[in-house]
User: Fold this.
Amino acid sequence: MASNKNREILIKTGWTALKVALVAVVVIVFTSKANNYYFTIVNSALIYVIAALSLSLLLGMGGMMSFATVTFMGIGAYATANLSKVLHVPTSLSILLAVLISALIAFLIAILLTRLKGSYFAFASIGLAQISYAIFLNFKPLTGGPNGFSNVPKLIIAGIEFDNLKKWFYLLLIIVFLAALSLERIRRTTLGRSLAAIRDNEIAAQSLGIDIYSTKIITFVIASVYGSIAGALIAHMNTYLSAYLFTFDISVSFLIMVMLGGVNSTTGAILGALLVTLIPEWFRVLQSYMKLIYGISIVALMIFMPSGLTGIIDSIKYKVDMEKKKKRNKDYSNG
Amino acid sequence: MDEVILSIQNVNKSFGGIKPTDNVSFNVKRGEIVGLIGPNGAGKSTLLNLISGIISPDSGSIFLNNVDISRMPAYRRSRMGIGRTFQDPQFLLRSKPIENMLLGADLANKNRYMQSYLGLSEDKFTMKFAELLEISGLNVDMSLRINDLPYGQRKILEIVRALLGNPQILLMDEPAAGINIVETEMIVKLINYAISEQKIGVLLVEHHMDLVMSICNWIEVLSSGTIIANGVPEDVSKNPSVIEAYLGRKSDVIS
Assistant:
């Protein structure tokens, strides 16, 4: 038993070491070869990873289909832009304040929105995304209206100015890592388990002392934090904001990212976000068909791989494990 | 040990013209197993739902340790000590047994969110879980997902999870339905442990008469929403109105 456990731990650390090494190799090769064009694409992919993690929390863990991720990205982005440019708040502080503002707004919205279930919640979130887009596009004093919001100050953290995309790339890697880590942690806590219980059966969840309403509100607020961080980072990286960054279409692409990678998996959200952002760059010819392809791929994903890429890998792994166990039991009973 | 844990007083509930709970009153004392029996459609499940708070009564009151809980939401009732198992066990189907058992431990843990984020207090849980498994004598393959476990094992695990939540009273909806004799014995061992060591009360809904008659201290018989008889098992099993409710009246025409 003990040796078995040791072996398990050894295998696990081996796997983790391999993954880390793989990521490190990719990062090193990438940074040595890449020009600004690649950094632009990869950096925006990394920011979308954070937004996809936000949806992964809501949809994967909590079963809440939300299209309002862009709303909180926009709130985060415009809040930090206004704070730092108009009120001259230091950028690292303005991002924090923007996240707080977004969380507060998310809390107020969640009080109403989380009363709705299933597709009603989804519809309400679509409405929210459309309303917020209209505001971002038309409310000139805060968003610059159709002209957009330009000259957002550059990000400065602890005296380091993030003035080129390479620096941003490293910063985003760290933030994505921390975001993924915290999401994985949430999955293994009371909150994560409560959410999963609500998703699977609300009556059983209540009889285990789980307050459905407040759990959903907390989750919605945490998801908005991830979203607003993504938005605030976009603001300071691009130094220019336009309402077109926060349209309903972008929310739909988050949905595809999460579904492609695997709804209930952190790795899946990361993988999905990277694939969905990077693949269109390789097929630029098809750009005008992108919406059509998105639509078809959502339908196809739902039919053929509802649990996404990581879901398929997991179920293969699980089956192999079970086969091995059966074989071992057979050997044991024979000999 | 005569302390009343759960007291149901004149509870009524109707759905349109149907009245599944009609002026029902009874008590469950600490350390006591009360059997709730009755033919199909007698209103047993409705009564469990009324106690656990899935639905609330039209009139009447339910007291837990002398606190009126009849208007509280279900999650607060379970935090106050109403544990429950379902006829069809309810789990996070895609997860392993341990994660499902942690849901029970979460219920017992008062500082739920912060403590679990910091990763504290899992050792205590593991010990308690191992102890309960040992008492039942159940051997579970922890590497399997819960929906790949045999049905009987799932039913036992659901009771274990409810006990991990440190309930004051456990409501059990047909724990012995659809499982074999060995597994039924495991369930009896768990119930007996809960009664003697955790000092809780148990309200048992069950169709398996041998089981009810052998482990219950007191039986309430429900038929068409009303209590038609109660008493110790020996008396109830001889009561003519109980036999009538289950088997029907002897017809004069045929005899």
Remarks:
- The mean pLDDT of chain B is 86.
- Residues 4-247 of chain B form a domain with the Rossmann fold fold (CATH 3.40.50.300).
- Strands of chain B lie at 4-15, 18-29, 33-37, 59-64, 67-68, 82-85, 169-173, 201-205, 218-223, 226-231.
